[in-house]
Each structure stands twice: as C-alpha cells, then as structure tokens.
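Try this one yourself first.
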C-alpha cells in the first residue's frame, strides 16, 4: 500500500466510526430534525451505556478504590469573579484569522499545523502567526488570503436575572476544575483530610471554539474528568511523576489501549497554559488525525489558590500540624476530555476482520472488541425463531437477566447470522441463542464475540457463567492485574 492509499484508508476510519455510532444508537447529531447544531451531539441508548461504563472505570480507578480521594459535583454557574481570578477573562483566548473574501474564521494554529508548517503552533503570538502566514503564503481552506491574527476569548457569556447588562453578566464554565479550587477548603475542613489528598469531579465545560470538527473530538459543550491533587510544595515533584505514571497505567491497563497508540508529549515553554509550571499531554493516535491530546497532566503550583485567595479575600491556606506552617498547597492536575476518551476507545476497539462463511464466501465482519467491563451489553438473548414457543421463554429469560441488574439486549429480527453481526458491531461479548433443543435439554448456545466459538450452557448455570465472566474480565479483576 503506497502512502496515498494508506492515507485514504486511514481517513475512512473516522467516517466508519461516525456511521457506526449513528446507525447503532451510540451518538446522534443534536437537533438533527432541525438540520443539526454544529459540534453538539446526543448520546443514544448504546452511547449512554458505554459512557457510564467508562465513567465507572474512571471513578473506580481514581476515587472508590483509593483512600486519598474524594469527589464533588459542582454547579455550572459560578460567581463571575471566579473567571477573573483564574485568568480566563484576560487570558483564555485563541488566535483567529479570517478569510478576507468569505469572512469565515479559523483558528490560526490549526491552519498552520494542518499545513504541516510546524507541529505545535498554539504558543505563537499574533505577530508570529502573521510572520508564518506571510512567509509560507498560507491561504484559507477556500484558497483566499487571510487577515491579521487577533485574539478571541473562548468563554461563553450569558446573563442571569431580569436585566441584560454588565451587572448580570456570567460565564459558563470554561473549565470544570474551578469548583474544586473554590471548594477545596470546605472539603478539607469537613473531611478532616491531611495532605496529600485529591478532589475529583466529572463536570460540564463550555468553550466558544472558533472552528469545530472531527466529530466529538472538539465540541463547544463537553465534560471533563478532573483530578486535583493537593500536596505540600516539597512533595509536588514526586507526586507529579507518580500521577503521570498513574494516567499511563489507566489508559494502557484499565482501558486496554495498545501502548503503541499512546504517547506523552511535554509542552514547549511558550505553549504552556498561563497557570502551569509544567505540562504533559497524554496523546492517542486517532488514525488520520495523528496523535492528539486526550488528557493533560499539569503542575499548577499554588497558582489557583493564590489567585482565589487574593480576589476573594478569603484565607485558603492549609495548616500543617507537623511543621506549624500555613501555606497554599501545590496542585497536580489530571484533566481528561470525556468525549475524547470515548472516541479513543471507539478507535482502539473498532476492527474489520475477514471471515469465510459456511458456503466458502469471504466477508468482512465489523467488531467493536470492547473489553468486557466497557461493553454496553454483556450479552444478548436471541430466540432462534419468532414463534411463541421460543420467543416467550426467551423474553422471560431476558427479563430475568435484566432484573439481576445486568445490561442485556433482546433481538429476534432477521437471521441468526445477521443478529450475531449486529451484536458484534456494538461490542456484545456473548450471544445466547434459545433454540428448539432448549425446550428439551434446558440448555442454550452461548457464542463468544472474540472467538466465535459456541458452547451449550444449562439455563440454571447461566448465572454462574456470567459470575465467572465478571470475576475474570470485570472491572475489579482487570484493575487487580495492573
């Protein structure tokens, strides 16, 4: 395969995932009956199950299995001074350039990176962007000249109250973590925690992005999965190293992502966010997109607590009983984009396999080979026939399994082969076929997604079968092996 053919093959991956997720009920364009709304998406029935399973894995790894972490859930609306103190009102901006003919606006760093002029253009000043555009004769996607670069603040503004003026101006959260900094003292006081300890949160964030594309990779409304780990300044270097290793193990171990598809990249000096003393990105290789950030690990020092103490006038210091000193703790941050994590999982486990039918014909089998603990459905009940003598007891079995709290699907439409394929596409590890023999031997055929092997299992032994699957392949078992 030559370079051009390889590029075309890779480009198809995103298109295939978008098609699959829409057709199988994972992700829908929001407001589609009105023509859609740019960069907003709804999670369908399968998408919600996958999302909740990833959330459960994240929460188990970072909160419930640890003794040094608590979790909060913060409001979306916060006092507007929060964003002044944090630096977002003054410094949370991207550089945009405008097509002087069509007046379409683009993020300058994205255009420069996509033109392969430089890999990381996010740290350029407006003047440097102008120099790069001129030196390389960079044009807009429509082939027109570009304007000078200017700053564009990404905070989403709105008003709360009956009057729309400066007195009622508020912002939607530009990053989810600010609740944690404002609540840190209350959490420490009420939980009586000693340093080091962390506060975790999964919360909404909103950014008025200049350009949005690449499906759910970059959207204007999204969720962040944050860990803010508070520590003594002298301990921050060691804990920063620890959390970098922790995040690597989470992706490669708990989520099961191939290490060859992951890498760490350190931010350049002029690329770091204004609050970061040091910053590394966990990046995943999204086929044609290349390596892109899915999580940032940042050494934030005491910047956030210093700023909020200054602007609020409230003492946020920690009293260290051992040394008798008061200080604002240092913070190690691990902040992941939830949608990007989901997209990485979809890319990682989307497979196309060549298979040969019983008639000797070659075919392509699409498989979402999700680990058991991430699969939306753990099994599917498939009656061999729609006849009531099979469909009725099959549905009763389906209802019984659901009542046990297990996610399970029921499908009686089409041939058994087509139904197997549908379950392969959504990542269901096991299919249970209730056939005419079941009426006599009280056993069903259990088919494995990954091996396509089949075995007969007594109805009375199904609970034991899935208990064994959970003990060997479930979340707790997988974490124990890392």
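Now uncover the answer:
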């Amino acid at each position: 395969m030559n370079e051009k053919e390889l590029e075309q093959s890779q480009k198809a991956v995103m298109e295939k995932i978008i098609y699959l997720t829409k057709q199988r009920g994972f992700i829908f364009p929001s407001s589609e009956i009105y023509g859609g709304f740019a960069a907003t998406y709804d999670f369908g029935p399968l998408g919600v199950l996958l999302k909740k399973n990833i959330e459960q894995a994240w929460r188990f790894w970072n909160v419930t299995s640890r003794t040094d972490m608590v979790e909060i859930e913060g409001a979306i609306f916060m006092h507007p001074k929060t964003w002044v103190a944090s630096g977002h009102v003054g410094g949370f901006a991207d550089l945009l350039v405008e097509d002087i003919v069509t007046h379409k606006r683009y993020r300058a760093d994205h255009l420069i990176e996509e033109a392969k002029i430089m890999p990381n253009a996010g740290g350029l000043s407006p003047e440097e962007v102008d120099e790069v555009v001129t030196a390389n004769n960079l044009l807009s996607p429509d082939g027109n000249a570009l304007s000078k670069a200017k700053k564009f603040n990404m905070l989403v503004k709105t008003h709360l109250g009956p009057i729309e003026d400066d007195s009622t101006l508020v912002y939607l959260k530009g990053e989810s973590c600010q609740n944690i900094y404002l609540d840190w003292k209350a959490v420490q006081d009420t939980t009586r925690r000693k340093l080091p300890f962390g506060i975790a949160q999964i919360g909404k964030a909103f950014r008025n992005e200049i350009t949005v594309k690449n499906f759910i990779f970059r959207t204007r409304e999204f969720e962040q999965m944050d860990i803010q780990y508070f520590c003594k300044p002298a301990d921050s270097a060691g804990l920063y190293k620890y959390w970098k290793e922790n995040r690597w193990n989470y992706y490669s171990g708990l989520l099961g992502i191939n290490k060859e598809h992951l890498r760490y990249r350190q931010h350049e000096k002029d690329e770091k966010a204004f609050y970061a003393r040091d910053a590394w990105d966990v990046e995943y290789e999204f086929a044609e997109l290349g390596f892109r950030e899915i999580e940032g690990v940042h050494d934030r020092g005491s910047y956030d607590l210093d700023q909020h103490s200054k602007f609020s006038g409230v003492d946020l210091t920690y009293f260290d009983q051992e040394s008798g000193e008061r200080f604002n703790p240092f913070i190690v941050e691990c902040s992941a984009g939830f949608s990007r994590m989901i997209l990485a999982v979809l890319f990682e486990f989307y497979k196309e396999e060549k298979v040969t039918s019983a008639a000797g014909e070659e075919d392509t089998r699409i498989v979402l080979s999700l680990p058991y603990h991430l699969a939306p459905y753990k099994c599917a009940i498939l009656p061999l026939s729609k006849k009531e003598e099979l469909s009725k007891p099959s549905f009763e079995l389906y209802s019984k399994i659901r009542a046990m709290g297990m996610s399970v699907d029921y499908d009686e439409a089409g041939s058994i082969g087509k139904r197997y394929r549908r379950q392969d596409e959504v990542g269901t590890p096991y299919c249970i076929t209730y056939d005419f023999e079941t009426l006599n031997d009280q056993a069903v055929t259990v088919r494995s997604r990954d091996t396509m092997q089949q075995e007969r299992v007594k109805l009375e032994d199904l609970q034991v079968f899935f208990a064994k699957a959970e003990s060997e392949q479930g979340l707790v078992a997988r974490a124990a092996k890392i």
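Discussion: The longest helix spans residues 3-23. The first strand starts at residue 27 and ends at 29.
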